[in-house]
Design goal:
Blueprint lengths: L1 H12 L5 E8 L2 E3 L5 E2 L2 H16 L11 E5 L5 E8 L3 E6 L22
Antiparallel strand pairs: 1-2, 1-3, 1-4, 4-5, 5-6
């Protein structure tokens, strides 16, 4: 009986994961995320942003600019900007003190479902 009480107590103390909103910008197209996605910390935000970039890069025939994803927190503050550059791969910049000011640039392998 005591184990159940401890388990219930821990469950009630668990906070829901924060929700982030991922906006996609490419050429004249901007897709605003009104629903958001729950992410488990900065790793979850980075993974989701890179997955969106991978899905959107090269999706538009004749695309002129590099697609960019911005991630906003629930307060509307941009916490991450990620851009897919044709020659160098994904460039990621964190805002504020989330992590370092700039993450390393790395290519995304074609067909890869996860970020390195």
């Amino acid at each position: 009986m005591q184990a159940l009480a401890v388990s219930a107590c821990l469950t009630s103390m668990v906070e829901p994961m924060p929700r982030y909103f991922f906006d996609l910008h490419s050429d004249c197209l901007t897709e605003w995320d009104d629903d958001g996605t729950e992410c488990d910390g900065s790793d979850g935000v980075l993974h989701h942003a890179l997955e969106l970039l991978r899905e959107s890069s090269g999706a538009e025939p004749g695309q002129q600019s590099a697609p960019t994803v911005t991630a906003r927190d629930a307060a509307g503050h941009v916490v991450l900007t990620a851009t897919m550059k044709p020659c160098t791969g994904a460039s990621v910049r964190w805002a504020g003190e989330q992590l370092s000011s700039t993450a390393p640039i790395f290519p995304l392998p074609s067909g890869s479902a996860s970020a390195p």
